[in-house]
Design goal:
There is one protein chain. The chain is α/β, with parallel strands linked by helices and 240 residues long. It folds into 2 domains: 130 residues, Rossmann fold; 97 residues, OB fold (Dihydrolipoamide Acetyltransferase, E2P), CATH 2.40.50. It has 8 helices and 15 strands. The strands form 4 sheets. A 5-stranded parallel beta sheet has the order 2-1-3-4-5, sandwiched between helices.
């Protein structure tokens, strides 16, 4: 594989979606993340100040749609559009986008889009990144500081996570671990395709959900609230 990395800029007004793309980029050896932006105005400044080979950009954003923003660029980089709405696909392809990713975006689908970019940049004799290559570099656990030691917790064992002021309670299949840490810092350690934030005080494991309503998620016997500000992100994650 060539040593030259593809420089990337990610743009999305949804923090959870932006974080997911950021984690995928960082987990892919061929990609180099230049910056992340919450809107097109920020993106314009980064495009002017940095060399960007590949732009990941949400379509439906405030101020200006991602598709309209790309139309304003004289020499746009290669573009992969991301959106929760299938109806925008035609606009994306009319702009000669490399690919169009429908949220929630799986890691496998992300890699498929990246391979399209790589195949356009590399000689045919050079290896294209595979999901097997990347998965070897992704962790399946985290370490939590508790009881004066670092405790290994597998992602697959976590049921949900609750914020308790200055502490976070991580509830697993067979125990609870209390660690002095902000829930936002824990969230950054978790795979975005496996966990979703439901409330400012709760993160849940998606595949551990037994049932849900508009306002509540049930995991085992625990009912976990879904706040209005996180409702869309939860609904998107549960459409997988």
């Amino acid at each position: 594989m060539t040593d030259k990395k593809i420089s990337c800029l990610a743009v999305d007004d949804e923090p959870i979606a932006l974080h997911a793309i950021e984690k995928y980029i960082r987990a892919t050896p061929m990609l180099d993340l230049v910056a992340t932006c919450n809107n097109a105005v920020e993106a314009l400044a980064d495009l002017q100040n940095n060399k960007v080979d590949l732009l990941f950009i949400d379509i439906q954003m405030p101020q200006i749609f991602g598709t309209d923003f790309v139309r304003t660029l004289t020499h746009p980089p290669k573009v992969i559009f991301t959106t929760a709405f299938r109806k925008y696909a035609i606009d994306g392809f009319e702009l000669d986008a490399v690919d169009y990713l429908l949220k929630p975006i799986s890691f496998e689908r992300f890699l498929k889009a990246v391979n399209k970019v790589i195949s356009k940049n590399l000689h045919s004799s050079e290896q294209i990144v595979s999901s097997a290559d990347v998965k070897e570099n992704t962790e399946k656990y985290l370490f939590l500081r508790a009881d004066r030691k670092n405790i290994k917790v597998n992602f697959d064992d976590i049921l949900f996570i609750e914020s308790l002021k200055d502490y976070v309670k991580v509830v697993t299949k067979d125990k609870s671990i209390l660690t002095k840490q902000a829930i936002s810092s824990i969230e950054k350690m978790l795979p975005a395709d496996l966990f979703t934030r439901t409330h400012r005080s709760f993160i849940v494991s998606i595949d551990k959900i037994n049932s849900f309503t508009q306002d509540l998620i049930q995991i085992d016997k625990q009912e976990i609230p879904i706040s209005r500000s996180y409702r869309y992100a939860v609904e998107t994650a549960l459409k997988k």
